[in-house]
Amino acid sequence: MQIDIIEDCKTFKKIRENWDFVYAADPQAQFFLSWVWLSGWLSVVNEQWFILAAKPDTHDSSYIAFFPLKIVLEQQDGGGFYTELYMAGNSIADYTGMICHPGYEEEVIPAFAAYIQQQLEWSNFNVQNILETDTRMSLFLRSFPGDSFEFSQHRIQNQGEDTDNYMAPYVSLADDWDEYLQNYLSSNTRQKIRRFLRKIENSDEFSITEVNADNLEAHIEILLRLWESTWREKKGDKCDVIMSVIRAILRHCFEHNCLYFPVLWQGETPLGAIANFLDVQQKSMLFVISGRDKTFNNPPPGLILHANAIRYAIQNGFKIYDFLRGNEEYKYSFGVKERRIQHIVVKYKNCQNRKWDVRTLPLAFHLTVQHHRANQLTKAEQGYRQILEVESNHSEALYGLGVLMRQKGEYQTAENLLKNLLQVQPNSIKALFSLGNLYQTQGLLSEAIETYNQVLALQPNAIAAYNNLGYALQQLGKWEDAIACYQKALELQPDCIEAEVNKANALHAQRKLSPDKQAHYAVLNNDLGNKCKQVGDFKTAIAYYQQSISMNPDLAEAQYNLEIVLLENSREVCT
């Protein structure tokens, strides 16, 4: 059995005909595994998804099974990355699984399991939202040997809710509407539905509109506004994300003719709306989301809209009305049966080093940079090193770790990393500039000057390089050369405060700065000292504070700041 990976929308689009053929042949297929659903969902989510596609070991180019999955990057408390596998679409799809052409299950399912164990890197596999009666997933899980893996069942209960989201009520529909009313419902519910539907149909006050191209956007906004009125307080900012996703999915399903979406009105006022997915192939209607005006109960919008949807389903040959996850009490008024859903977690036994899939490397780097910017240096260092273990020439990780090592005072390690980066990218301006700063920090002024000149040879208008070159020359007592560098930086950027202050400091050292300007630049030196202190550059901060005091010994703020930074610097050295 040959297993391929599909991991981009372009390829997924190309195999639609093959997918639809397998879906139509598979009696266990369900809407959340349809090409239409997945194509809409995968295009709007920012997830690392992929699909295992199986074909027989023949020259036949057609696939006979598909298994949608996704990788999620996780991070340990100490900063190390690892990946978990999930079923693709699990965050919104009430059911997950695989589709397979009948007769191939015994070959395909063990082949999928073997591929996942041998070719993918993961620590935990969340087999989520699978039906308890799914025999394929049972066979799949049995393919993970007990001596290497352990299994556990997870149940997540939303705080403050009694709803069991591992229960999925559904109605196995009758062939006739009157038969459904007579045999599925209690007499009380039957009478209510008949009375309320007659009231809507015979009334000039109430009406139900079905969705079309002209009213789609209006229907969507009505539904989401009513839904939000119920859930905003509980879900907070998550509401915005949920509504954005729902809006995109409803549009997609309408475009692909698999959406039943009526709105109940009283005159010009919407009382309720309900959205259902239509799986014509499997003869199933799936209730997705609803919203209603909670101040209006006569007639009850929810009861009317569900009854109307079930009637539509029966009249159009559907066999299942699926309420999906959640055992809310109102669903049981419609003559439902129950299905149970499972969430099984597969873990490696005795896995000391958690496994990490390199496809998540871009996200790992992004998170590592965030840790670095937040001054979480331990996490950032571990992230950079883990990335470099996988990709030793990752230029951004080499640079980031080099900067971090300089922050920690591990200068030789920082130099080695920056030089490694220059082997990969010989003309990297930021690598050369950081190397120059590193030399300057260590007092290796000749090396710093040489490196800054390399930067300027590559980028003649590099303002920061002129400023830092001037500072290195100033430390060597080359005042005129230093002032010329500062002047060049100011010509390129007149508001460059660092160059302006450093130029003033050089003039002050030559006794060429007037007393009133000394007082002015004393304040600016103190401000620059504060900036350097904030980013952990204590050595430069100390130099600025000392220069401030030299210009104005009575500046109490600079005296205080110098004492604080000296104390903090001594603590850092001791640790």
TrEMBL record:
It holds the Pfam family Acetyltransf_6. InterPro entries: Acyl_CoA_acyltransferase, BioF2-like_GNAT_dom, TPR-like_helical_dom_sf, TPR_rpt, Ycf3. SUPFAM superfamilies: Acyl-CoA N-acyltransferases (Nat), TPR-like. SMART domains: TPR. The keyword Ribosomal protein does not apply. Coiled coil: none annotated. Residues 187-331 form the BioF2-like acetyltransferase domain. This is BioF2-like acetyltransferase domain-containing protein.
